[in-house]
Each structure stands twice: as C-alpha cells, then as structure tokens.
C-alpha cells in the first residue's frame, strides 16, 4: 500500500510500504477514506521533534473496516468508523476512568513500527475499544465526513480545553490561538453555553471562522497589547475561562494574564520552546486553576458525535485545503507557510 513517510526535515514522501494487516486477535484493518495534517505534525516536518527516516506519520483518520481479527466482536467488515488519535485497550484503570491517553498498552498512530493515518490503510490495535462506528450513509457526504474526521483530534481537543477551563453558561471565554484546535475551542465554548467568546488571532480568514463558530469579539494584538485589549473588553477583570491552544511560552503567559481572578485555563497546546511562561506565585495569589493536557478524545466522541450528526455543531470549515495522497507533501508545505489552516487528505 502507499503511505506518507518522514525522511528528514522538510522531506515528506508518499511511497510504497508493507500492507496493513491483522497481527493480533483484537486488530482491525481500516481502509482510509479521510485523513488530515495536524499542526503537531509540523514539528516533525520542521525538525523540532525526532523521527526515524521512513517512519509513518499522521494520527487523524476515518474509514471502512476491511478485515478484523478473531477477537473483534463489536465491528464487522464494511463498517464506517473513526479513530481517535491514540489506541487503547479499554480495560485498564485509566481507560475505565476516561483517560485512554494514559493506557499502558496504548500508543499513537505513526509511532515507530505502526501505521500512520496518512496512508491507504491502517492496522488498528484493540479495535473494539478504540474505534467508534459512524452511520454508513455518512460515507457519501463529503461535508459530513470532514466534520466527523474532526472527532479524531481537533474537535475533541478543543472540547477538552473548554472543559478544563470550566466553560459553562453565562461566562466569558478567551481563546488563545487561531489554529484548528483554537477554532474548535471556540465552537466547544459556544456549545457549552458561553455568553461571550473572545478569539485572539491575527489571520482574518481564521478569525472569520471563529466568528462563524460563535466568537463575539476578536483581538488581533499579541503580547501585552493583547492582554490590554482583553482587559478592556472585560472591564479590567479578564475572562472567567481561557483556552490555551498554542503551547509557546508567550501564549501561556498571555493566557495567565487574561484570566480573571478565580478563573481557569484549559491548556491543550503541547508545550514547545524553552519554558512554560508560568509563574505559580501569580497563579496562587489570583486563584487561577490550570487544567488540561493530552485530550482523551475517545472519551468525548460519544458526547460530540450526535451534535455533529444533527448539525448542532459543524467543525468542517477548519479544513480549507484538500489533497489526494500524492499531494500530501504539498499540504505540509502549505500549512508550514500558513497558506492553509488544516489540510484534508482523500486517499
């Protein structure tokens, strides 16, 4: 089969690799219908995180089951399914408690020795616990497929940030980051009943999507100017709930400074850079809560799926460029150069 592989910084290729195949009784093989490029994939692309030459890449996909191992009881060949960005056994203490990202038997798509999502097919370990069945007729609806694909990562991650920040009806929310996760954070905050949503971002195309998703205000400034703008919009107090969806020292510092005393930050921007920007003394004195981390999106899919199916939420606008498998390297280049927000792949 063909799949996307990493070889060196800025060297992403699509090449022939061994076919995905059942190896363990609980495995399933999924033929990929839709996949995408994540902002976190760019770290490997730019050389910020280590990868082995030839290693697979991509962790967001949905598709049709082509084969199951003898231990799979919950799915059949032909089922349309979506995969969260990690697999997990579904039975360990962490899985039972709703934290499959900490499963000791779990893993991430594309890690050494495993298939990545940006290919023609994927071997899925622990299929019964990992995959979620989708309505069969969704396979013929391109917009719906794109919206459902967001459940594999960005929509669930935005929701995780909103939950961590304590978003609830009537509060003011600020969202730091105008990437796909930040935009989904806006959508999640609106879904959870936020009264006011302030989106921080400088790219008009993205902030326009934020407004469509429910943002009531947009702050284009950065750093101290952004803090002043948010404070001005909130009578000097800041936001009750802040979603941090970038992961840099500056973005975390901004998040702390725009949080209202007694408020909370939900952070899902994977930390990268020389520091965190956190001053625990400031957070202690102002009673600011920090909660977040790797989103257990498999736990959230059953909650979010019905709202996508009935049109209550539609995350599909975060995909603004579509490529076939051969176009994946160009898709990486477009996201790296910020000419694309999030690239949809149609193998």
Give an overview in words.
It is a single chain. This protein is α/β, with parallel strands linked by helices. It is built from twelve helices and 18 strands. The strands form four sheets. Strands 3, 5, 6, 9, 10, 17 and 18 form a seven-stranded mixed β-sheet that branches. Helix 9 links the parallel strand 14 and strand 15 (259-267). The longest helix has 13 residues, at 297-309.
Helix/strand structural class: alpha/beta
The portion of residues assigned to helices is 25-40%
Tell me the overall shape.
globular
Rg, rounded, reads 20 Å
Instruction: Say how many strands there are.
Output: 18
Largest sheet: 7 strands, mixed
Summed over residues and divided by their number, the pLDDT gives a mean of 96
Number of helices: 12
- Give the N-terminus to C-terminus distance in angstroms: 11 Å
Beta fraction of the residues?
15-25%
Low-confidence stretches: none
Secondary-structure element string: EEEHEEEEHEEHEHHEHEHEHEHEHEHEHE
List keywords for this structure.
7-stranded mixed beta sheet; 30% helix
Short overview:
With 347 residues, this protein is α/β, with parallel strands linked by helices.
Protein topology:
Elements: E1 2-8, E2 11-16, E3 28-36, H1 41-46, E4 55-56, E5 61-68, E6 80-83, E7 86-87, H2 93-96, E8 107-108, E9 121-124, H3 127-130, E10 132-133, H4 142-149, H5 154-164, E11 172-176, H6 180-191, E12 196-200, H7 204-213, E13 217-219, H8 223-233, E14 239-244, H9 249-257, E15 259-267, H10 280-285, E16 289-292, H11 297-309, E17 321-323, H12 328-336, E18 343-345
Parallel strand pairs: 11-12, 11-14, 12-13, 14-15, 15-16, 17-18
Antiparallel strand pairs: 1-2, 1-4, 3-5, 3-9, 3-18, 5-6, 6-10, 7-8
């Amino acid at each position: 089969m063909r799949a996307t592989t990493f070889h060196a910084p800025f060297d992403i290729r699509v090449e022939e690799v061994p076919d995905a195949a059942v190896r363990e009784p609980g495995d399933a093989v999924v033929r990929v219908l839709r996949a995408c490029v994540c902002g976190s994939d760019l770290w490997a692309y730019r050389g910020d995180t280590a990868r082995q030459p030839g290693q697979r890449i991509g962790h967001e996909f949905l598709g049709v089951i082509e084969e199951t191992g003898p231990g799979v009881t919950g799915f059949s060949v032909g089922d349309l399914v979506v995969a969260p960005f990690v697999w997990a056994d579904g039975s360990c203490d962490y899985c039972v408690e709703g934290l499959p990202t900490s499963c000791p038997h779990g893993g991430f798509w594309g890690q050494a020795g495993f298939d990545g999502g940006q290919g023609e097919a994927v071997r899925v370990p622990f299929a019964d616990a990992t995959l979620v069945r989708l309505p069969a007729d969704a396979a013929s609806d391109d917009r719906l497929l794109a919206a459902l694909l967001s459940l594999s990562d960005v929509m669930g991650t935005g929701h995780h940030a909103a939950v961590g920040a304590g978003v609830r009806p009537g509060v003011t929310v600020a969202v730091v980051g105008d990437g796909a996760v930040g935009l989904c954070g806006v959508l999640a905050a609106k879904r959870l009943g936020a009264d006011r949503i302030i989106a921080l971002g400088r790219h008009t195309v993205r902030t326009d999507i934020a407004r469509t998703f429910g943002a009531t205000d947009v702050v284009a400034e950065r750093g101290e100017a952004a803090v002043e703008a948010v404070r001005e919009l909130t009578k000097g107090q800041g936001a009750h709930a802040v979603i941090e969806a970038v992961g840099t020292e500056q973005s975390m510092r901004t998040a702390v400074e725009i949080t209202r005393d007694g408020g909370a930050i939900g952070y899902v921007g994977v930390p990268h850079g020389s520091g965190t920007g956190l001053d625990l003394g400031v957070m202690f004195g102002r009673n600011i809560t920090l909660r977040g981390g790797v989103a257990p999106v498999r736990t959230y899919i059953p909650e979010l799926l019905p709202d996508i199916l009935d049109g209550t939420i539609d995350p599909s606008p975060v995909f603004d460029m579509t490529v076939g498998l051969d176009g994946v390297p160009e898709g990486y280049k477009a996201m790296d150069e910020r000419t694309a927000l999030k690239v949809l792949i149609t193998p």
